[in-house]
Amino acid sequence: MMIFFIFVVIAMRSPAHAIYSSTLSLSLQGHEFQPRYGVQLIFNETTKSRLLCSAACSQNPSCRIFDYDSSSHRCRLFEADLTNGAIIATASQTSIVGSTILSASLYASMYNQSCSACRENRYQTCSSNTNTCQCPGNSYWNGSMCPLQLFENAACSQIDACRSDFNLSCIINSYGEFTQCSR
Fold first, then answer.
1. Which 3 state secondary structure label does DSSP give 55?
2. Which domains, from first to last, does the chain contain?
3. Chain centroid to CA 125: how far?
């Protein structure tokens, strides 16, 4: 099955007056997102339009994917991406999936810089411990960007790649190599 994408840029002003900007890809209608884990659903409400649903995702640093059904006005935001979920066909021809397009350029110039560098940015947050721009919760720095932390049994390549909120660690084998996320 081939899914075509339309690219949309969303720039919104949050209630705190910070500007959040995202570039999104949209699936064809008739699709929804299926997360691998229930904990990845961070918002499930009715919203008046697809634009408002995408704006809600853009304003939430944890949101990487949303789906919206224009018949039911259901808007769901997910802390997930296509590595831990899938875009699937659905019976509703009025449902569409939007996913945030991420690139290293969104991260590299700000990571570990003074908090003033990421003040109006959804991709990095200010750490009160170090007063520097860091990856938001449930993500980690891989040297070029902030991918989502991994779940149990996922292959990992560094110590902080696994979901610490689930007490997961990247296990090191007898050869000193990182292997997989485990308790």
1. helix
2. 24-101 (3.50.4.10), 104-138 (no CATH), 149-182 (no CATH)
3. 14
Phi-psi region of 128 (alpha: psi -120 to 50; beta: other; left: phi over 0): alpha
Q: pLDDT digit string (tens) for 59-104?
A: 888 899 999 999 999 999 999 998 889 999 999 999 999 998 888 8
Among residues 62, 83, 58, 70, the alpha carbon closest in space to that of 32 is found at: 70
State the Cα–Cα distance between residues 26 and 49, nearest whole angstrom: 14
- Beta strand 85-89 with 65-69: parallel, antiparallel or unpaired? unpaired
pTM of the model: 0.82
Categorize the per-residue pLDDT at 9 as very low, low, confident or very high, splitting at 50, 70 and 90: very low
Q: Is 38 helix (H, G, I), strand (E, B) or coil?
A: helix
Q: What is the largest CA-CA distance in the chain?
A: 55
